[in-house]
């Protein structure tokens, strides 16, 4: 894992096509802005995990 320190208004670029900008820092909360091509799927990790768990439950239900 790469660990970076950024201030509000600063950005990082991933693979020359994705830009992540720190918009605001308030206490322990950080607001990020992401600019990426439409072909890049951007989702919060907890939603990805919930979707994967839901999909696994559907597969198990189909086997019954």
How would you concisely characterize the structure shown here?
The chain is α+β, with helices and mostly antiparallel strands and 64 residues long.
Helix-and-strand structural type? alpha+beta
Q: In what range is the share of β-strand residues?
A: 25-35%
Strand arrangement in the largest pleated sheet: 1-2-3
Largest sheet: 3 strands, antiparallel
Shape: extended
How far from one another are the termini? Answer: 40 Å
Number of helices: 1
- Helix and strand element order: EEEH
- Strands, total number: 3
Mean pLDDT: 88
Low-confidence parts = none
Total domains: 1
Helix content: 25-40%
**Cα Rg:** 17 Å
Care to describe what's here?
With 64 residues, the protein is an alpha+beta fold. It has one domain. It has one helix spanning 45-63; strands at 11-14, 18-26, 29-35. A 3-stranded antiparallel sheet has the order 1-2-3, with no helix packed on it. The mean pLDDT is 88.
Search tags:
single chain; 64 residues; alpha+beta; 3-stranded antiparallel beta sheet; 1 helix; 30% helix; extended
Secondary structure layout plus pairing:
Elements: E1 11-14, E2 18-26, E3 29-35, H1 45-63
Antiparallel strand pairs: 1-2, 2-3
């Amino acid at each position: 894992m790469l660990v970076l320190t950024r201030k509000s208004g600063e950005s990082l670029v991933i693979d020359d096509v994705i830009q992540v900008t720190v918009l605001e820092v308030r206490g322990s909360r950080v607001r990020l802005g992401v600019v990426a091509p439409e072909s890049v799927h951007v989702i919060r990790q907890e939603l990805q995990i919930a979707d994967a768990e839901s999909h696994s439950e559907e597969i198990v239900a189909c086997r019954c």
